[in-house]
Amino acid sequence: MDAARTDAPSRPRSAWSFELGPIEGAHEVRVRVLSGWGLNCEAETAAGFRMLGAQSEIVHTGALIEAGAAALAGVHVLAFCGGFSFGDHIASGRVLANRLRFRFGDALARFVDDGGHVIGICNGFQTITKLGLLPAWGRSRGQGLAPQQVSIVDNDRLGYRDAWVRLGFDRDSPCAFTRGCSGAALEVPARHGEGKIVFADDASFARVSDAHLIPLRYVDAHGTATARWPDNPNGSTDAAAALCDESGRVFGIMPHPEAFLYPENHPDFTRWRAAGERPIAGDGLGILASGVRSVLGRWP
Amino acid sequence: MGATIHRFEVEARGHGRDALAAQTAARLSGWLGQPVDAGAIATRRVYHLDLGLDDDEAARVLAAVVDPVAQTGAVGMLPDPWPAGTLVLEIGLRPGVTDAVGATVHRAAADCLGRPLHGAAYSSLLFAFWGPAAESVASAAQTLLCNPLIQRARRQSLPRTLVLEVPRAGATDPPRVEHVALRDADDETLQRISQQGMLALSLLEMRAIAAHFRDRGRDPTDAELECLAQTWSEHCKHKIFASPIELDGPDGARRVQRGLFREYIRGATEAVAAARVRDGIDPPQSPWLVSVFHDNAGVVRFTDADHLVYKVETHNSPSALDPYGGAMTGIVGVNRDSFGTGLGADLLTNVWGYCFGAPDHAAPLPAGLMHPRRIREGVHHGVIDGGNQSGIPYSRGFELFDARYVGKPLVFCGTVAAMPVTVAGRPTHDKCAAPGDAIVMVGGRIGKDGIHGATFSSVRLDESAPVQAVQIGDPITQKMMFDMLTVARDRGLFSSMTDNGAGGLSSSVGEMATSSGGAELDLSLAPLKYPGLQPWEVLVSEAQERMTVAVPPAQLDAFLALAQRYEVLATVLGRFTDSGRLVVRWGETEVADLSLAFLHDGVPLPPLPARLEPHTPQPPQLSALREPGALGAELLALFETPEHARTAELVRHYDHEVKGLSVIKPLVGVARDVPASATVMRVRHGRREGVVLGEGVHPFYADHDAAAMARACVDEGVRKVLCAGARIDRIAALDNFCWPDPVRSDRTPDGAHKLAQLVACCEGLYQACVAYGVPLISGKDSMKNDAFIGGTKISIPPTLLVSVMGQIDDVATALDPVLVAGSDLWLLGETRGELGGSSLLRRWGQGHAGAVPQTDPARLWPRYRAFAALVAAGRVRSAAALSRGGLAVALGHALLAGGVALEIALDAVAADPVDALFSESTGRVLFSSAPADRAEIETQLGPHGLVALGRSVDATAELRATIAGATVLRLAESELRARWTAAYVD
């Protein structure tokens, strides 16, 4: 008899329309993952890009600033990873965002103008939002960074929380990092104390919402966007879990796709195994894979 | 300077809701036992900038720190829109207390203005309370939110006045070196000097020091005496484990001549190492034990590329005084231990475990003790913040509750790290400071924080505990230091490293100097947090986030340049020598000159008396459990005790997935809220090997039989990692002893009994470790866990924590306790009438009745080999180690985790259903398998006490247990979950 014959629950459908694994041509894609000053997710973020075959290097943020714009020459993807930059002491990402704006803002603006991809995860998302890279409406080519237009603040239930969430995709979003989605929800861990996305006013929200700049929303077990805790861990406006700019190449996400690179990261993997299912990678890798495919213009 | 102080106030606006007000209301509601309206509370963040800014600059800095979308702020005060009668409470830190937020504000201001700024910034929080309950809520808030040891509160009514006072620390005293007249002092004077100076030196030790200096023809300096006190403290020297013991008992007298550590702890590890050689388990050129006992943490071989490092520490006394800061220092401190092992290891995961008084403790508390609920809240938040902000996930966590932990809570914190086998062409586990290497202090500055930490933890807690004994960690400063030192390690820029923990520089330099043969320090070079520290204070301060590094002269420039690039403070304080002496100066002034031989080996170790008082337990009185329906009611009641209640919401505040390596997580099951028997974590990206962690801790068995306690602890830890799929030939353990003072004295008349319990515990530990082939690779003891307040003495129960670390070759084969439907359910191992110290009897107030579980490790080992072989063959679907609460709690967890129906028969478990369900007999595993493997399971495990319990069924989740076909217990998952969840007391 087959050991797989069981009533164990089978794995939900993959969130991606492509196979997760090395991508043809990815060896030409250069990724820089920022580290230092309290950031702490650089290893897994870099490992994820490496699993796809990209050239993925960790660089200390101080070294990047010191090197100036030249540090970004030939770079395709700049990844702002998670962590507690400067302890998030004043507010999450605030001090790092200021420092980058004061000393590296023009280089970042040019990088985006030149077609670069930017992903910010958790603290990285908080940082690039406060830096004005997201959603950056009204900014035209050649200008410096936009002012901060959106903020990410304390969860309604105050305090850091680590739990897996389900994310539903907006398939009309221009976002480069979610384009390869299958329509099924993406499961990843959310781990933050300040993840609630807020807008200065209704008009700002409408501007983001109408342009489909919210590529991912917290959804419940039925796949419906929800304001209810714990499916929505922070009370974010319109259940927003992520934002992108109008080009789709700048993307920020609160939960952690880079914490689901391997199938064994998933809390249910032992039950999938009992049902005979052994996926080759974790669904979180798909976010990074979409980004790399966007750089290469290579979609299945 | 006063005129240039600026005050900032910042508050949420618009969609940026005041979440702190809501949380404060919830906390106060819990504390007051009545609802508190969050709508009648407002909060603000307040910063005072003593940075010499002009008003324009202050305005620019404010604009840079206030969120333009979600906040509003003002230089000076924001308008107060609150009703008349509003009370405003502002809580800030006392002078000299680490203010990490203030330091970041300072940095942010310098970034904004583009120039370095001198001075300091200070943070505080402002709370406004209004409405009919304003007065009572504000008073409760002041009690709950402000710990006067480290914080100060200011209350104002409206209209407020602008306050520009800052807690600037420091003094103008010039550095002085005093000599202490010891040579001619009589015994009474010697004792007084020790007590008044918080030196915790015994009369015998004071006499030894006096004699040493008589020979040298001078009196010791204050710094020399302090340095000796730190180095000779129980905390650093482990005198109780090193001294000979005279054991008197019913079987006659005997002597543990080599002391407990050499005889039993090191003895067990040496026996295991010898057995591995004898049995040819490891290739001769690569022994599995890489580095044990002589470094900050134990090191064992793991893969071709990495070793594993593990250390567990306790931080009990500071956590009693300042739960948040004390516990945070516990976790970031043990991070430094594992990080600073060999030439440096990469931190992987944390563990924690706490023993508290019950959160609903209702009996009166002696004055000066904090309520256990408050201690618990602070301890959790300290370790949550320390771990999360350092980017280190946790794997294991436990909590135990007993009224005897009211006097001193136990706070265990540990860290596993991965150490590259080689770095820069050298074996990483070797370190050796050479004569001529520079002594470089890296990380934070030195203040008065933590002065006397080592000696303080070596005495009981009483009313005169010093303020400065509390240190507060700053995880970000430490993280930046670790980032820099990791790069320096990979470039081969230093030859040795150790952390500054207990005893500060006196211990770290004193310890590293043993490899070179001496050291010279100039304390006037040390970076201080504020002026006015005396030389001896600089030498023994336990200010956090500091490592001491030995840097060869050829690498010094590169090392210092790297530190500067990473914004990490690194200061040359002297050099290592081969003079045989620790020489300390302040500029030209001599501060200390001690021979290393006297410093490290001069402490007298007189024999200690031990005598066990026999324990004669009463039989348990459990007739109430014979009533119909009583078994199910009892199971539900157990899940409502603080020990077993659902804590998922609390522990989800701890990150357990950062690094992206977690496999079997601390909480498992369909609702992801049931504690896992053991956790599994991948160690490096792109590789399949993992580390498996479990532990055993059974203080409630100690009063019955301390040897049985120790065997149960080792057995449970080993069984847990095997249940997750660990290799049976690579299991290592750590021992952490927390004991009440076991040295007989006026205040401890029963010291000889407590010491005899310690001896028994060590014997049990030795026996189990040797039988299982499990070495003790690192350990720690905390031997004075008593509070003596207002004539009341509260001593903890003797507590041994055995932390177990296993290895797994492929994390994809890891197991958890989660059942799927359609499985056979088995119990492996005999169940005896061993209810002594059990969850059941303690709930019935009979903790001292009954017989505690006895463990025969030599008999259990073949069982485990057979079980591990089946796991390795992929025949086991899920497994859980039975622990506190016995089969009943294991079945309850299985029901909650699997969400499927369990149909079981108790007939073959034990004759008495109470024993069957609630006995805590060791050596048992609850596991499931595919029906196809039934014959194989029976063949392999039949000779090892296998019981076919029943099966799991795809039906409404409930537990149904029968005896002789009659249902004796029927429990719906929904009811258990509801009761389990509602029982939690935060």
Layout of secondary structure:
The complex is a heterodimer of chains A (300) and B (986).
Chain A: E1 30-35, H1 42-51, E2 55-60, H2 61-67, E3 77-80, H3 94-113, E4 117-121, H4 123-130, E5 150-153, E6 161-169, E7 186-192, E8 196-199, H5 202-210, E9 216-219, E10 242-244, E11 250-253, H6 269-274, H7 285-296
Parallel strand pairs in A: 1-2, 1-3, 3-4, 4-11
Antiparallel strand pairs in A: 5-8, 6-7, 6-9, 10-11
Helix pairs in contact in A: 3-4
Chain B: E1 6-12, H1 19-32, E2 41-50, H2 55-65, E3 71-75, E4 87-93, H3 100-113, E5 120-129, H4 134-145, E6 151-157, H5 187-196, H6 203-216, H7 222-231, H8 234-237, H9 239-242, E7 245-249, E8 252-256, H10 259-278, E9 289-291, E10 298-301, E11 306-314, H11 316-321, H12 323-339, E12 346-356, H13 372-390, E13 394-401, E14 410-420, E15 422-423, E16 426-427, E17 438-443, H14 453-456, H15 475-490, E18 496-499, H16 504-516, E19 519-522, H17 535-540, E20 546-551, H18 556-565, E21 570-576, E22 581-586, E23 589-595, H19 596-601, E24 608-611, H20 630-638, H21 648-651, E25 662-664, E26 667-668, E27 674-675, E28 679-682, E29 690-697, H22 706-723, E30 732-738, H23 751-772, E31 776-782, E32 786-789, E33 792-795, E34 799-808, E35 824-828, H24 839-843, H25 857-872, E36 878-881, H26 886-898, E37 901-905, H27 913-918, E38 925-929, H28 934-941, E39 946-953, E40 958-963, E41 966-972, H29 973-982
Parallel strand pairs in B: 7-24, 12-13, 19-22, 30-31, 37-40
Antiparallel strand pairs in B: 1-2, 1-3, 2-5, 4-5, 4-6, 7-8, 9-10, 10-11, 11-14, 12-14, 15-16, 17-20, 17-21, 18-20, 19-21, 22-23, 25-28, 26-27, 28-29, 29-34, 30-34, 32-33, 35-38, 35-39, 36-38, 37-39, 40-41
Helix pairs in contact in B: 1-4, 2-3, 10-23, 12-13, 13-15, 22-23, 22-25
